[in-house]
């Protein structure tokens, strides 16, 4: 359970330093993983981003302080990281559905978010079929887009839009034709943080396929390093089956094994079958150590 304990250590660090200028790098350091992989693990386990969790907890504590003290709204706003009372009031209303002044006039109730405690239940009710294989480095070719690793809502919208685009403009068909069989299918590759833009970590997301030849016009290439891979079977329609599989991997499989994420790119593997089919077969490949 060391993996679960490391995630909880990072959460405890956030709670202890809620009034400070928290950075994702400092939080992830507590779990001894990269910022990218901590954010991904956190969002899979909790269905919210790290930033959302911090904001919700700060506004919960701010609400409690408004109820129990006579501290001025402007002072509470500054304490919880808001530069103006207007910005604080807007964020407060978004979470609690009332303004700070309404709360003090007893004209509504708080929407409270409690401190998060990670608990893992290993029931084994839904067995996971997986294999562990070793594979030499191989090249993928395809297209890539940059997404914020902080703005989960951007990824939820942007990545499906990218898949819709490549399915309609012929790119996906071209990738299936190019595939050299090293890994059979079209891949959705989630890369490591590539750079920072205005203090926001950005990661590369690829729609690609394994191909060792010359890179086609309009495409880019990436070498995936030699790795030991945990390969999980996924059965069912997209996106529900894939989302459920990721949650089970992070909440059950990792905590119950001695493996850790190796920190290199991971990917989802798709066939050319109907993505809405209840019998659709896909895979998740995670580099492990």
From TrEMBL:
Which InterPro entries would you find in this protein's record?
AraC_E-bd (IPR010499), Cass2 (IPR029441), Homeodomain-like_sf (IPR009057), HTH_AraC (IPR018060), MarA-like (IPR050959), Reg_factor_effector_dom_sf (IPR011256), Tscrpt_reg_AraC-type_HTH (IPR020449)
Q: Which Pfam families match?
A: Cass2, HTH_18
Occurrences of domain HTH araC/xylS-type (ranges): 8-106
Q: Which GO terms describe its molecular function?
A: DNA-binding transcription factor activity; sequence-specific DNA binding
Gene3D superfamilies, per the entry: Homeodomain-like, Regulatory factor, effector binding domain
Keyword annotations: DNA-binding, Transcription, Transcription regulation
What PANTHER family does the database record attribute to this sequence? RIGHT ORIGIN-BINDING PROTEIN
**What name does UniProt use for this protein?**
Helix-turn-helix domain-containing protein
């Amino acid at each position: 359970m060391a993996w679960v304990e490391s995630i909880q250590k990072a959460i405890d660090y956030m709670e202890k330093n809620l009034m400070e200028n928290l950075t994702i790098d400092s939080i992830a350091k507590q779990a001894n993983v990269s910022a990218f992989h901590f954010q991904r693990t956190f969002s899979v386990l909790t269905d919210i981003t790290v930033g959302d969790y911090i904001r919700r907890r700060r506004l919960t504590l701010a609400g409690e302080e408004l109820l129990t003290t006579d501290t001025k709204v402007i002072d509470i706003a500054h304490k919880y990281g808001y530069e103006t009372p207007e910005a604080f009031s807007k964020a407060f209303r978004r979470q609690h559905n009332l303004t700070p002044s309404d709360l003090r006039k007893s004209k509504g109730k708080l929407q409270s978010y409690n401190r998060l405690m990670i608990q893992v239940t290993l029931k084994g009710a839904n067995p996971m079929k997986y294999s562990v294989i070793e594979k030499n480095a191989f090249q993928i070719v395809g297209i890539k887009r940059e997404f914020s690793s902080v703005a989960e809502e951007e990824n939820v919208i942007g990545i499906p839009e990218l898949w819709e685009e490549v399915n309609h403009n012929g790119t996906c068909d071209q990738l299936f034709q190019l595939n050299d069989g090293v890994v059979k299918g079209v891949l959705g590759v989630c890369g490591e943080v590539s750079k920072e833009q205005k203090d926001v970590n950005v990661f590369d997301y690829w729609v690609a396929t394994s191909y060792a030849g010359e890179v086609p016009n309009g495409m880019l290439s990436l070498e995936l390093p030699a790795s030991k891979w945990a390969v999980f079977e996924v059965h069912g329609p997209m996106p529900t089956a894939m989302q459920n599989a990721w949650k089970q991997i992070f909440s059950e499989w990792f905590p119950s094994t001695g493996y850790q994420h190796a920190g290199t790119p991971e990917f989802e593997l798709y066939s050319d079958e109907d993505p809405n089919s209840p019998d659709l077969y896909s895979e998740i490949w995670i580099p492990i150590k």
